[in-house]
Amino acid sequence: MVEVKLHDIGEGMTEADINCYLVKPGDFVKADDPLVEVQTDKMTAEIPAPRSGVIKELLLSPGQTVQVGTTLLVMEDRSGGDHSAEFQKGTHIVKNEAEPAVAVLDRPAQVRVPVGVSARLGQILASPYTRKVARENGVNIMEVKGTGPAGRIIEEDILAFVKLKEAGVANTSKPGFEHQVPNVSEAGSELQAPTLSEAGSEEHDSGVHKDTLPFRGRRKQIAKKMVQSLYTIPHCTHFEEIDVSELIALREEIKAAGNSISATAFFIKALSIGLKEFPVFNAKLDEENESIQLLREHHIGIAVDTPDGLIVPVIRNVEKMNLKQIHGEMKRLTKLALDDKLTVKDISGGTFTISNVGPLGGSIGATPIIQHPQTALVSFHKTKKRPVVTDQDEIAIRSIMNLSMAFDHRVADGATAVAFTNRFAQLIENPKMMLLELM
Amino acid sequence: METALQTKTLTLVQAITDGLDTMLGESKEVILLGEDIGKNGGVFRATDGLQEKYGEDRVIDTPLSEAGFVGAAIGMAVNGFRPVVEIQFLGFIYPAYEQIMTHASRLRMRTMGHYTVPMVIRAPYGAGVRAPEIHCDSTESLFTHMPGMKVVCPSNAYDAKGLMIAAIEDPDPVLFLEPMRSYRSSRGEVPEGKYTVEIGKGKKLTEGEDVTVISWGAMVPVAMKAAEEMKQKGVNCEVLDLRTLYPIDKDLVIESVQKTGRTVIVHEAHATGGTGSDLISLINDEAFLYQKAPAERVTGYDTPVPYFGFEDHYLPTPKRVAAAIEKVMKF
């Protein structure tokens, strides 16, 4: 018998929902055949068969949320014997498929968490007795600032906190309660409270109405990745404006001929051409081995805004694609993203990322956060008609799009980033130049 | 506890002699055995005059064979006697350890309660009297580890006699630790006749709200001295004399520690595996939420007790105890 369990299919997941079983008892499956489809915070994934055999029993029903390690189904192994080792191998294959993304998140030890966060998560210094006093007084010890040795919270801190809270000024949301809060107990709490809430103090408990959003699932994943990226990569953002008038005209021509290719597809192709010349932006910094790996394949992630948050499906091997193929793949992935049907393969392995915020309206610029461990990310902003001084010193109305390019300053310098965006601008401003590259 | 009206002022060792005398006089089942305890009255004169008074059949000089006479006493106890054996120094008990651990302490269990071993093993223990090596051991926790063996340790004359009588009357084997450093260092009022100090009950020597200081035997005066010093500094110590090391008076300890929230344990035995560790575990189990500071231990060091030139450096002193009290107060 082989028990097929839910394993971590990447990103350090801990649980998943069962979408559906793809087999039924009695079915014969070959190794790596998909058995069950699960939905994690970020993606839909299929759990493959660790080896060939006959399905004996399905243990769960669709809709159930299960923890990693839960047995999903039992299958009978044709050849018999213990196959835990093979099962391990089976899981490994899946991991390999998702290698780049997994490689990042498999090493949580490297993630630097801000000190304040860990201090708040359980490093509160207080003796058991102090904790007891806090509990008996209904005080959340995390809100109290300690005045004892090494900042330890002592009994007096709790009692002072209680006193001030009774006086109506203690905050309940801010960790690190200051003892130097003006003593208003003499002024009378009834008078003081409305004044504070009028002043819009969010820290004041009474008088502030708030809604609470859950901080888990995709939102939490995004937060985790953002923190990892921002605390690892020294970000530098370079801004550029691009004249897309010619590109718009070209698209009209193509459209008239019966083909619709989005501007983003052109951007992606132009970026890919640029990346060939400036491979440092399609690279991965390997600090451990002191090397920068220049990646030959251009797997371009496209940030897609979904109701559940940002998700980044990846167009693979853009360097080998023509504009039509890029356009088609982009449409396909965007739809999957909006339908929440992306698989682990669709979202992993990116080497460079773009974010097209134009349709949403932002026209000036942004400081995008790089997808760790990539080295760069380009945001395209809203195209606007603006007056421009031409080479002939005349004022003309042109369609201008701003671009923000964030790059890892450890790996590349500003000059290279400027050269890269210049090359990109050259291709977009004279789109027929791209023909030369496509020949 | 019965209290006689008449009292006399005795040293701790005299109180022990008085207790033995009382029980020898009361019951013919009480027999004393040991090396040189008869004519010589024992190495510390604890049995002085008793052979003369009760005869060679009641107070027996044995060969130099701890395993032999402890084993013999176990046999006598099982057969209706109440033997009290003297080990000259606790450090000499190891040849008899096998008899104690595999027979004395577990016969009641092994016979499903049909037999008990009502014997007492007297053993002077501890450092501070300038004795040679092995004569100064304080290895009480070797005996508290095995259920079935009771371990008592008086710190004063009154308790010494009362505990001795209670130990002789107890149906189970009792290791009776005698702090030789305290044998003659002070005197106390001791009632004449028979009275007992209950085994398993400690005693609160001083009332205090700030810190509980727990000790026993020869360390009680040290703890008391430190507590007096701390009182000058405004710290009120509640000093407990544990008196029985097995079974420990849990109620006394927990009640006090829950009140003060701070603990200092003083014993001259080595720190590792010492009774202090057990006390901290007990406090952790029963009074965790009352702790304002981690419990401190002031103990001998993890070395054999050194030769007399260094003995004073090994033993806890009032200064060391006071420092520990300050430490838990300032935590």
UniProtKB/TrEMBL annotation, chain A:
Gene3D superfamilies: 2.40.50.100, Chloramphenicol acetyltransferase-like domain (3.30.559.10), E3-binding domain (4.10.320.10)
Residues in Peripheral subunit-binding (PSBD) domain copies: 125-162
Class of enzymatic activity (EC top level): transferase
UniProt KW Transferase keyword: yes
EC number(s) from the headed UniProt entry: 2.3.1.-
Cofactor: (R)-lipoate
Domain Lipoyl-binding: 1-76
InterPro entries registered for this protein in UniProt: 2-oxoacid_DH_actylTfrase, 2-oxoacid_DH_E2_comp, Biotin_lipoyl, CAT-like_dom_sf, E3-bd_dom_sf, PSBD, Single_hybrid_motif
CDD domains: lipoyl_domain
Domain of life: Bacteria
GO MF entries: acyltransferase activity
Region (Disordered) residue spans: 173-212
Keywords: Acyltransferase, Lipoyl, Transferase
Feature: compositional bias, Basic and acidic residues: 201-212
Entries under PANTHER family matching the protein: DIHYDROLIPOAMIDE ACETYLTRANSFERASE COMPONENT OF PYRUVATE DEHYDROGENASE COMPLEX, LIPOAMIDE ACYLTRANSFERASE COMPONENT OF BRANCHED-CHAIN ALPHA-KETO ACID DEHYDROGENASE COMPLEX, MITOCHONDRIAL
Family designation: Belongs to the 2-oxoacid dehydrogenase family.
Protein name: Dihydrolipoamide acetyltransferase component of pyruvate dehydrogenase complex
Organism encoding this protein: Mesobacillus jeotgali
UniProtKB/TrEMBL annotation, chain B:
Domain Transketolase-like pyrimidine-binding: 10-185
Pfam families: Transket_pyr, Transketolase_C
Presence of keyword Oxidoreductase: yes
Keywords: Oxidoreductase, Thiamine pyrophosphate
Enzyme class: oxidoreductase
Alphabetical list of PANTHER family matching this protein: PYRUVATE DEHYDROGENASE E1 COMPONENT BETA SUBUNIT, PYRUVATE DEHYDROGENASE E1 COMPONENT SUBUNIT BETA
Annotated protein name in UniProt: Alpha-ketoacid dehydrogenase subunit beta
